[in-house]
């Protein structure tokens, strides 16, 4: 009986303590309000602004640089090379001397036919003098008509002989001229194929040297046939600009114009070939080089652009984090038009002047508080982001 009374007393004490604690808690909440949940720290980010301006619209392709002209310099006569007048890789102009063949045999031939002409001229002068005398004697009846006619025929024969001599002289002069091998075009010389002292032949497959014209220069590239209607539409409005870039799209090599749209589509690949021409005054395009081509179709006015690193990809498509005035971020879906030079053309989802997160998104979620990095910290973060984001 005593044990039961003791347990009852202990239970009553516990209940009274709990009621008292609960009453104290209600009284504290009434005086101070409920306890606030812990506040998450702000996430440091780099911000960028949505800008409005003119945005060029490009089609991208891969092309091969083609020399405007390529000439294998062959000899048109056989002879010994006595002089090499160029250096491999040298820039030459049309008419510049490249090499000389021993001219002595050809000079001797020219001298021989020249002497023949001079002999025939002397004989012609004598024949013409005789014809004059025979004509005077014939008029007085002291010479027969046959003698006069025979002398006229001899004069005509010698005139024909002189014409033949003139033709032989011209041929010999041409052969002598072939002893000087000159560049037929402006260009760059390649590897010399024959050394001085050797006999060069017209039938040599590699000739003396290859001269390649690189200024101006051409590029052959391909684009999908689905782009053909756009290209034709823009070509009807005027010439289209073409930009040549290195394979990693980091170096602009030259700017040119579209020169040709091929007259057929390659059925095996579903592509169409195009040809662009570049002045190439800096010689940054080289024959055989594989490069990227940007064909500018148009310029879109008042286009909205943001840094490429601001656009993220999710299950529902592309999105960006927009910074609200209260320092929080909101996830917003966007539509991307093209990516060029580290900038993204936004066709829907953003407005000019809005601020978006361009670096630090991996720690964000809807409603996260952010703090903006400035100065060197922002530059370092943006540089790291650019290294992680390849520029298409």
UniProtKB/TrEMBL annotation:
Compartmental location: Cell membrane
Species annotation: Reyranella soli
Similarity field: Belongs to the membrane fusion protein (MFP) (TC 8.A.1) family.
Gene Ontology MF terms: efflux transmembrane transporter activity
SUPFAM superfamilies: HlyD-like secretion proteins (SSF111369)
Residue ranges of domain Multidrug resistance protein MdtA-like beta-barrel in the record: 216-297
Pfam family, one: HH_MFP_RND
Domain named Multidrug resistance protein MdtA-like barrel-sandwich hybrid: residues: 69-212
Name this polypeptide is given: Multidrug transporter
Record key words, sorted: Cell inner membrane, Cell membrane, Membrane, Transport
A GO term from the CC aspect: efflux pump complex
Broad class of the protein's primary localization: membrane
Residue ranges of every copy of the Multidrug resistance protein MdtA-like alpha-helical hairpin domain listed in the record: 109-179
Multidrug resistance protein MdtA-like C-terminal permuted SH3 domain sequence ranges: 305-360
Keyword Membrane in record: yes
Domain of life: Bacteria
